[in-house]
Amino acid sequence: MALPSVFDPKTTEETFQRLEKLNYMSKPLWGKMSAAQMLAHLNVSYDLAYGKTVSNPGFFGKLMLKWFVKGIVTSEKPYAKNSRTGPDFIISNQRDFEKEKSIFIDYVKKTESLGADYFEGRESSSFGSMTAKEWSTQFYKHIDHHFRQFGV
Questions:
Q1: I need a surface site. Which of 3, 124, 148, 151 has the fewest CB within 10 A?
Q2: Distance between CA atoms of 99 and 116, rounded to whole angstroms?
Q3: d(CA 36, CA 54)
């Protein structure tokens, strides 16, 4: 079964309905991140996608990411609990929940608004050229994983 598309307004609406069940006091069912850190962690994906943050894994690192990680990230198979994350995604400092939530909302809206055509063939700093479906799967799967982590 295909994952919902992040370019579909219905998916955006469902994402925001789930988001509204979170607050700064929400506790994870597994892992160590606070709800604010989790939202900041999700925002890293968008920061990288939109060039706000630049990751340069180098030639060998990018090759390894492309060969071994891209398939995991862009497949429809859910992430396991307590999966390892890349160094760019580690949020160790405290974050403001409302600020991170606002940034997340803006990114989700922007992604839906730009649509699949914008992402088709778009270059990922980690994985090279990706299809719109791969971008959508990457975003949706990551959001779903962490929302499930917090029981929403």
A1: 151
A2: 27
A3: 22
- 53 near 124, Cβ under 8 Å? no
24: left (phi over 0), alpha (psi -120 to 50) or beta: alpha
pTM of full prediction above 0.85: yes
User: Which residues are paired to 123 by β-bridges?
Assistant: 129
73-106: burial string, b at 16+ Cβ within 10 Å, e else: bbeeeebeeeeeeeebbebeeebebeebbebbee
Q: What share of the chain is helix, strand, coil (3-state, %, to 5)?
A: 55, 5, 40
Summarize pLDDT for 8-43 with one digit per residue, the tens: 999 999 999 999 999 999 999 999 999 999 999 999
pLDDT surpasses 60 at 61 = no
